[in-house]
Write a structure and sequence with these properties.
345 residues, globular, alpha/beta
Length: 345
């Protein structure tokens, strides 16, 4: 085994929503962090004011470049693979184009990254950030399951068939997670995955993260993102939520807990769209709704369960209502909601 620092880890996608906050969380807990980004200058500007920056190194790396992560992974004992495509609005419908230009490069990039882990000789565990887009609350007959857990995987064939809003993102997550576990098993890599639902709350990124924009689309009436939220609600029966601080704490928890294995759903709770609107109305009593009038049940038909994670000893700090409230306040502070929302005079 090559020389390593037991508190040195690598985070991919450091300029993204989860990635940037995870870097912050790791530094707060005393880790030395190798943060990777395609644009290291952007990462430097975004992360320059966080506490513990003397233990942060930023590396340029790209999943599509062979051996691009070799340098960043030198001496690291852990890898948090957070980087991901966050393209919800693609209009591409041609299956061959999606396979050739999106899915195949994504799979190759995952394999490329894990090969760098092997070459490092020091990485002991990989935490892979999946997505609740890989999960469905409906069974083979289309009926609601009473409980949704890590085994409730969305069939790729159904995604190809329906092409619901955000379908390319869903496929990319399905195929890359499958490849990650396959490669890890074949090559003796200790890999666990965490399945975040809609992540929201505060943020370090200069612009409002996509997940917050999707969550707040009933408020803004965004014509591209509101259908994504409706699609999630139709697949799960509600919108599962987790605070950014909790999802990052859970990443670190899974890295540090030796008996962790497999997949872990990380949802603090869920709200139906009517319930979300109720909370929004209390926080923004004078806002004028721009979203289309779609009928939804007020109660969720399925429980989205994080039992595996809770049984391992993890505890959430924020509930779903907290997440929505803080998302609204953060987006007001950023100026996003002020420019997007029409208020009654």
């Amino acid at each position: 085994m090559k020389a390593c620092n037991e508190r040195r880890v690598c985070v991919t996608g450091a300029t993204g929503y989860i990635g940037s906050w995870l870097v912050r969380s790791l530094l707060q807990q005393g880790y030395h962090v190798h943060a990777t980004a395609r644009d290291p200058g952007k990462a430097q500007r975004m992360l320059s004011t966080i506490e513990g920056i003397d233990r942060l190194q930023i590396f340029r790396a790209d999943l599509n470049e062979d051996r691009s992560f070799d340098e960043a992974l030198k001496g690291c004992v852990g890898l948090f693979h957070v980087a991901a495509l966050m393209e919800f609005g693609t209009s591409v419908q041609e299956n061959d184009h999606v396979r050739r230009n999106i899915l195949e490069p994504a799979v190759w990039g995952t394999r490329n990254l894990l090969q760098s882990c092997m070459r490092s000789g020091t990485v002991k565990r990989v935490v892979f950030t999946s997505s609740i887009s890989t999960i469905t609350a409906k069974d083979e007959k289309g009926d609601w399951k009473p409980v949704v857990d890590e085994s409730s995987v969305t069939p790729a064939s159904l995604v190809w068939k329906t092409k619901n809003p955000g379908w390319v993102y869903v496929l990319s997550k399905l195929v890359t997670e499958e490849e990650a576990f396959k490669f890890a098993k074949e090559n003796g890599i200790d890999l666990v995955s965490i399945i975040p639902p809609t992540v929201a709350g505060s943020f370090l990124t200069p612009t409002v993260p996509s997940s917050l924009q999707v969550l707040l689309s009933p408020v803004t009436g965004d014509p591209k993102l509101y259908p994504v939220l409706v699609s999630v609600h139709s697949r799960l029966g509600s919108i599962a939520l987790v605070h950014i601080e909790d999802i990052c704490r859970a990443h670190i928890f899974l890295f540090e807990t030796s008996r962790a294995a497999g997949r872990y759903l990380c949802s603090a709770g869920s709200c139906t769209l009517p319930q979300i609107m109720d909370i929004v109305s209390l926080e923004l009593p004078n806002w004028i709704s721009k979203s289309s009038k779609v009928e939804f049940n007020r109660s969720a038909p399925s429980i989205i369960s994080s039992k595996r994670l809770l049984d391992l000893g993890y505890r959430f700090k924020y509930d779903a209502k907290d997440v929505i409230k803080e998302s609204i306040q953060s987006s007001i502070g950023n100026g996003f909601l002020n420019s997007q929302v029409e208020f009654k005079v």
